[in-house]
Automatic annotation (TrEMBL):
Name of protein: Cryptochrome/photolyase family protein
Species classification: Bacteria, Pseudomonadati, Pseudomonadota, Gammaproteobacteria, Cellvibrionales
Stored PANTHER family: SLR1343 PROTEIN (PTHR38657:SF1)
Length: 513
């Protein structure tokens, strides 16, 4: 071959212009890499999903007539890292040109950019995936400066003419977020459709991980539930549009411990397929819009707008924040948080039912939905002052969809406020009452959600006030948060002290909670 082209594990985009033409002078290399399973301790299902999807992608390319060199962990074990593997393959196939798609994670982006390949012409191209072109990121986002997601999102709606009537938003409003706050009743829970899951045989991959001593967390499953091919990803997308989209927005923030459907509810679970680029974001948006337009009113505007906002808005927005601020972003720790993550983050064994549910299902499925990530595990870490680097590592490892460009702004930014408000305009801090309102977790909890003090009091309540008190100088002036101090100031001094003492006790005994 004259040209070697690298396809990374999250670049499984069959519609990329590379693949329009079959060329025998081009060899594609796809490799299971030790550096990629080692840079963080991942959930075993996450590794299986990526490896399995990569192998399927390689096979699909071969079926279409392309030349592909697939390396398993066995084959790539001889190389120290990606550059040394590339160098070796270049020599073996005597290629004079090396092409790669710009990587989305800073780590790989830099590794590929600084790689020196004597006597080889190196070309970097776009991954043809995102809706905001890479070159425009610096026009829309400035390092160290907050930009409102809502403004960005409106711009994207206009740019792509999504849910627009000319210059105006469909239905006269840009945002139906306020209608997305319903809780699930017992009857609602009984109506949630069964999640569509797959049963992909990943036993060979599991053996490989064992053979190479790859460290991992979470429940190993020989039958992987995640979609690992274009066909499966499309099936999941169709299923979502048909059965879940009609209630997506309404129950977007709801949580339940109930039954076999509680872990996924009305969420699409498409994040892995989109982030691995098996699905294009506009393909997903178009499918949802089509379902909406042809649903005879079964799907209302608030549902589809809520979904579009996540993909056209949030997903593109956090990527902009990431690239405008890296590599400094990875070091930000605005609230000077330094505590270690308690060990129940790897076992789910805590008396706090909300946490044990959210962590337990994360270990079982490599998945939790947004509000569980933000308002259960994230909120607990925020209130307890856990080091954002440790929080990042946990999220980056445990979720099937976790890639740094999207994980980090969500975790370090939105959830931990460690970026001082580059992503969000307030800290997402809450006491037990929020969990009580949005879930059924509190009913069977060993702690009492109504109490702030005493051995049985929900730890979140005192931790919340401890957090607000500790950071008063930062949040008092925040228009979205400042008014909360009026409630605090109205409390009797001895009551306030008792709450702060309980918060301190919880922090001192964090492993026992
Ligand atoms: P749905 O609820 O069905 O939403 C549809 C799609 O919208 C998702 O597939 C995703 O592509 C997109 N989306 C929704 N919210 C966001 C968001 N805040 N940022 C970016 N895209 C969004 N998402 C990841 O893809 N990878 C991560 O590593 C990740 N880490 C997170 C960490 C924290 C602390 C928080 C609060 C959120 C994180 N998210 C992450 C965002 C969000 O929680 C997930 O995208 C979502 O839960 C994936 O499940 P789903 O496909 O069922 O989403």
């Amino acid at each position: 071959a004259k040209t070697l082209r690298l396809v990374l594990g999250d670049q499984l985009n069959a519609s990329h212009s590379w693949f329009k033409r079959v060329d025998d002078d081009v060899l594609y290399v796809i490799a299971e890499l030790h550096q990629e399973v080692d840079y963080c301790v991942h959930h075993v299902q996450k590794i299986c999903a990526f490896f399995s999807a990569m192998a399927n992608f390689a096979e699909a390319l071969q079926r279409a007539g392309h030349r592909v060199h697939y390396l398993t962990l066995d084959d790539s074990a001889a190389y120290a890292d990606l550059p040394s593997l590339i160098q070796s393959v270049l020599v073996t196939c005597q290629a004079t040109v090396f092409e790669y798609q710009r990587a989305d994670e800073y780590r790989l982006f830099t590794q590929l950019r600084v790689m020196s390949l004597p006597k080889v012409r190196v070309e970097e191209c776009d991954s043809e995936h995102f809706l905001l072109p890479f070159d425009e990121i610096t026009q829309q986002f400035s390092a160290g400066k907050h930009r409102r997601m809502e403004n960005f999102y409106r711009g994207m709606r206009q740019r792509y003419q999504v849910l627009m009537d000319g210059d105006s938003p469909r239905g006269g409003r840009w945002n139906f977020d306020s209608e997305n706050r319903n809780r699930l009743s017992v009857d609602d829970i009984a109506d949630v459709p069964e999640p569509l899951v797959f049963a992909n045989d990943v036993s060979a991959i599991l053996h490989r991980l064992e053979r190479h001593g790859v460290k991992h967390i979470g429940r190993p499953e020989t039958k992987l539930v995640w979609p690992v091919s274009r066909r499966q990803a499309k099936e999941l997308l169709d299923y979502f549009c048909r059965y879940l989209l009609p209630y997506f927005g309404r129950f977007q923030d709801a949580m339940t411990a109930g039954g076999a459907t509680g872990w996924s509810l009305y969420h699409s679970r498409l994040s892995f397929a989109i982030n691995a680029k098996i699905l294009h974001p506009m393909q997903v948006i178009d499918a949802a819009l089509y379902a909406f337009e042809t649903s005879d009113g079964v799907i209302d505007l608030a549902q589809v707008e809520g979904f579009v906002r996540q993909i056209l808005g949030w997903r593109e927005f956090v990527r902009g924040v990431y690239w405008a601020n890296m590599p400094r972003y990875a070091e930000l720790n605005n609230l000077a948080a330094s505590r270690e993550l308690p060990s129940y983050f790897w076992t789910g064994k805590t008396k706090m039912r909300c946490l044990s549910q959210a962590i337990g299902q994360s270990l079982d499925y490599a998945y939790a939905h947004h509000i569980q990530r933000l308002m259960v595990t994230g909120n607990f870490c925020l209130l307890s002052g856990i080091d954002p680097a440790a929080v990042d590592q946990w999220y980056l490892g445990i979720y099937v969809d976790a890639l740094e460009w999207v994980e980090m702004p969500n975790t370090r930014g939105m959830s931990q406020y460690a970026d001082g408000g580059l992503v969000g305009t307030k800290a997402y801090a809450a006491g037990g009452n929020y969990i009580r309102k949005m879930s059924d977790y509190c009913g069977d909890c060993e702690y009492r959600v109504k109490d702030k003090i005493g051995d049985k009091a929900c730890p979140l309540n005192s931790l919340y006030w401890g957090f607000m008190h500790r950071h008063r100088y930062r949040f008092a002036a925040n228009p979205r948060q400042g008014m909360i101090y009026k409630n605090w100031d109205k409390m009797a001094a001895d009551n306030k002290q008792a709450i702060l003492d309980r918060a301190q006790w919880c922090l001192d005994h964090i492993e026992e909670l």
